[in-house]
Amino acid sequence: MELRHLEHFLAVADAGSFTKAARNLHLVQSGVSATIKTLEHELGAALFVRTPGAVVLTAAGRALLPRARETLVAAGSAKDAVHRTQGTLQGEVTVGTLTSVNVVDLPDMLSVLRDRHPAVTVRLRAAAGGSADLAQQLRDGLLDVAFMSLPDPQRLGLDTRLLAVAPLSLYVPSAHPLVGAGRVVLAQLGEFPFVDSPQGFGNRTVVDQAFAAAGVDREVTLEVADIGTAVNYIRAGLGIGFLSRFLVEDHTGLDVLEIADHDLRWRFSVATASRRRPSGPTEAFLDLLRERYPSTRDLGR
């Protein structure tokens, strides 16, 4: 069994297609198919069920998947060790990010990283499913490091460092009955429609947990994956919503209320998978992050 066999196996498993995997690997499809057949012959088991629309892992394939990732990570660590003795760092780091959240100045950070380690490639990946999706991708080995906002990431098998905390305020459109109230309790809000992120996003989880603890039902009538645009829908009168103030530059057509009976706080962390030792490039990224952001920032009111 060669590392190339495992690389091709993971490419097909992640893409769900031989064609897409070949494209991602910059190879012809017949070459990838031949590699998988060789691996299946060596293991004595089919790894994929091939259908006209997609390929799906068999039970043997699912059993191999985490071991294949671990093996390639270990091989990468071995290369890192050799490169360090030569005074160079090579490889790549895949970073998961959240849209519209600019707590960390990634362009500036990556510019410094490139100057220090020009042979390191960085791949940025935004998760359509929010922080819950990023956490799963970390555990699956699809990401090396991720920025996320889940309330309790340690419970998910992740090593984390808190980077920032921000209160959540309630934004309502200017014609709303609550305008001018200043402070409200959650029990007053159950009758109103909400604009919020989909489930799995950190800010949505914080708010859902608070309403559940208060015993108040609420209805989210509009879900917006890009939290930075949610204020536009609130301003348009489509609902009320909780946002961190640093996300809202223009308060025209809005009133901002505080919650009197709950302390709603959004937490922003950097995370890696607990069960995987970070590669050299990942360590370099994390070291630079600690250098640039040594302590937790309070984004305040």
Automatic annotation (TrEMBL):
It holds the Pfam family HTH_1. SUPFAM superfamilies: Periplasmic binding protein-like II, Winged helix' DNA-binding domain. One of its GO terms (molecular function) is DNA binding. One of its GO terms (cellular component) is cytosol. Residues 1-58 form the HTH lysR-type domain. The keyword Ribonucleoprotein does not apply. Keywords: DNA-binding, Transcription, Transcription regulation. InterPro entries: HTH-type_LysR_regulators, LysR_HTH_N, LysR_subst-bd, WH-like_DNA-bd_sf, WH_DNA-bd_sf. Belongs to the LysR transcriptional regulatory family. This is DNA-binding transcriptional regulator, LysR family. It comes from Actinacidiphila yanglinensis.
